[in-house]
Amino acid sequence: MEIKAMTQYFPLNFSVESMQPNILLMCKLLFIVLCVYGFVGYIDDPYIPYIPQLDVFLNYPNVFKTLFKSIFVLSGILLLFNIRTRAAAIILGSSVIIILLSSKPLFRNHLFICGCVFLIAGFTNKNSYPWLLFIQFSLVYLGAFVNKVSQIEWWNGQFMYNWLANARENLFFIYTSRLFPDMLLAKLLSWFAMLTELGITVLFFFKKQHRNVGWVILLFHTVLYSITAFRFGHFYEDIVIMLLIFVHWPSETILVSFNKDMSPQVKRYFRLLSFSKTFEFSTKAILSDDWFQIKKESKIFTNWKALRFFLLHSTNFYVFLFFLDLFIRYLFNGFIMDFIHITLTWVIILFFLPLLLKKKPKIDMI
């Protein structure tokens, strides 16, 4: 069965008039992450709020809780079904921020970042460069750097050592650190984290470096996850999903062609990866020996280069990876789960790594 254009309100349709496909995809996945990790269940009446005026709701039990649970869920549903997406994102982000400010015990940095991303995404015009989202990213890493550099425990590696060796009992760190004298490994990891966060902050000021800084962020957090086997709640998932803003989505339609010998079933799987208007599948077979081909304006990408380009700009590819990650988490836990997650992540990174190593991939000109 051939996949045809999806209706406007279909959740896997990311071709809407008001938001860029990658930003809409980012918002939908972040909302699902918050729901999967039980954010709705944590919403309650104000408790030691950052804004004292919110204590007025204590005179009306369950009003705040019911109101903001409803706002969060309804705005998220509107976003999923492409109904007033920008307004839904603004309301969703505002509700998350207010909920967090209403309770100091509930406040988490990564949740606050999610709220800000929803809010800023709603204010981002489809036809303009998402500068506000990049500035938000820059502030996140600037804040992380300032927080670390102001503490002597990060300078001498004591924090990293206590966290990995004592709190986490990380066997990789414990055995590896014995090969280094005087907590040298802990110091190296501490300075690696601080200098990387500073470098990320600086690179954000240069538009031409945005693609590279996206790779730096991905590699930085994946290396830390590989060493620590710890995601800081769902901070790692949040950051990886937010990296979708670094994917430059084509504004023109891309023509996709297959070799005449390719299986119809395989062709169907390719069509399932993208329901948007980004790709148009040709009915004519490739005349050359290439098995896969993409035509973008006057350029032709073939085989593996074409496959990387196709997957990078296929919305359902990210949806598939997202739910595959959740499925692995559902089936396994502990060391096996982390091993599968980390291995799969590095396989995907290595597959796309040529996009970073070659700034201008070799292409065939028509």
Your description of this structure?
The protein is mostly helical and 366 residues long. Helix content is 59%, strand content 5%. It has helices at 21-36, 39-42, 63-80, 85-101, 109-122, 131-149, 152-155, 158-167, 171-177, 184-203, 210-228, 235-242, 264-272, 303-312, 315-331, 334-352, 354-357, and strands at residues 254-258, 279-281, 292-296, 299-302, 364-365. Strands 2-1-3-4-5 form a five-stranded mixed beta sheet. A hairpin with a 2-residue loop joins strand 3 (292-296) and strand 4. It is globular, with a radius of gyration of 23 Å.
> How many β strands by DSSP?
5
Identify the overall geometry: globular
* Biggest sheet layout: 5 strands, mixed
In terms of structural class, how would the helical and strand content be classed? mainly alpha
| Overall pLDDT level | 89
Main sheet: strand order: 2-1-3-4-5
Order of helices and strands: HHHHHHHHHHHHEHEEEHHHHE
Radius of gyration (Å)? 23 Å
Distance N to C terminus: 32 Å
Low-confidence stretches: 1-5, 360-366
Distinctive features:
366 residues, mainly alpha, five-stranded mixed β-sheet, 17 helices, 5 strands, globular, disordered N terminus, disordered C terminus
Brief digest:
The protein has 366 residues and is mainly alpha-helical. The chain is built from 17 helices and 5 strands.
